[in-house]
Specification:
It is a single chain. The protein has 297 residues and is an alpha+beta fold. The chain is elongated, with a radius of gyration of 22 Å. The chain has 10 helices and 14 strands.
């Protein structure tokens, strides 16, 4: 039975759910517009697009397991043709991501073929409290397997992720389900494996197209499941002209002048996340220097 509090179908959402008869919690996230916003300003190879989708889903699910106000960065880096893939998010489910590719990557490239010798760095920065950073080696063949290892190392709770990437309505889409054992005294290994086996039957079409309550009913119709309220997910870039101005004013004046002289009298600061360009000419720089000078008096 589903105790339903969220029936609307919105493709950029996260829902938490709970099994009443098992000490297991769950999350389901679907990302369409957010995923597209990350891809639209880049020409990533297919394998990198899929990996970014998996990383985006994993970050959303990971963020939802943390009870804190603050930011999170999940970064994959190595010495292969994919040198960097990172997704940044926060407790409000505002996400952004980018990848850097230096070389050819086949459409069916594996994680190892893309990243080479690498690792995952997960950085959690709460607004209150100390910053935490965890490093996970690429000991599994897939990104999701490596993220599951992180959960076991950091939270020491059995956790499984079921992630799909693909195309829905001719647009890229990524979605996933997380199941995690709650801290409990009883041995629930058998029931957790049973729920994971049910979850493994989910298809991409079901995960991409069906409302959350219907997905949970199809998977767990013999279970007592409570579905909680929907949280919207959005793409949000942190760039701004003010940040660019602040960065320029930290550089030595002669270095800024050299850039102006080399680039036809303009400085073009490009945001890798959203694709925006912030242009500054000699007049802009003079005004910034004047403003900085006045602030010192």
């Amino acid at each position: 039975m589903i105790d339903n509090k969220a029936t609307r179908i919105n493709m950029d959402t996260l829902n938490r759910f709970l099994f009443d008869n098992h000490s297991v919690r769950g999350e389901i996230t679907r990302l369409e517009n957010t995923y597209q916003a990350i891809l639209e300003n880049h020409t990533y190879p297919i394998a990198v697009q899929n990996l970014l989708g998996e990383l985006l889903v994993a970050t959303s699910l990971l963020t939802a397991t943390l009870k804190f106000d603050g930011d999170i960065a999940v970064q994959l880096q190595g010495d292969g043709p994919l040198t960097l893939a990172v997704v940044n998010g926060n407790n409000e489910q505002q996400l952004r991501g980018v990848a850097r590719v230096n070389g050819e990557i086949a459409d069916n490239a594996t994680l190892k073929e893309m990243v080479g010798n690498g690792y995952i760095v997960i950085t959690i920065t709460p607004k209150k409290g100390e910053r935490y950073q965890g490093i996970v080696g690429l000991e599994k063949d897939t990104l999701i397997g490596c993220i599951e290892n992180y959960f076991m190392q950091s939270e020491q709770l059995p956790t499984r992720l079921f992630v799909k990437t693909g195309v829905h309505n001719n647009k890229p889409m990524a979605a996933g389900i997380l199941l995690q054992v709650l801290p409990a005294n009883e041995d629930i290994e058998q029931s957790f494996e049973h729920l994971c086996a049910l979850t493994e039957t989910i298809t991409s079409d079901e995960l991409f197209q069906l409302p959350t309550d219907e997905i949970l009913y199809r998977l767990y119709n013999q279970e007592e499941v409570r579905l909680f309220e929907t949280h919207d997910i959005v793409f949000k870039c942190g760039c701004s002209r003010q940040r660019c101005e602040d960065s320029l004013m930290t550089l030595p004046a002669n270095e800024v002048d050299d850039i102006l002289n080399e680039d036809d009298g303009k400085i073009d600061i490009h945001c890798d996340y959203c694709g925006k360009h912030y242009l500054f000419d000699a007049i802009d720089i003079a005004e910034l220097r004047n403003k900085k000078s006045n602030n010192y008096h």
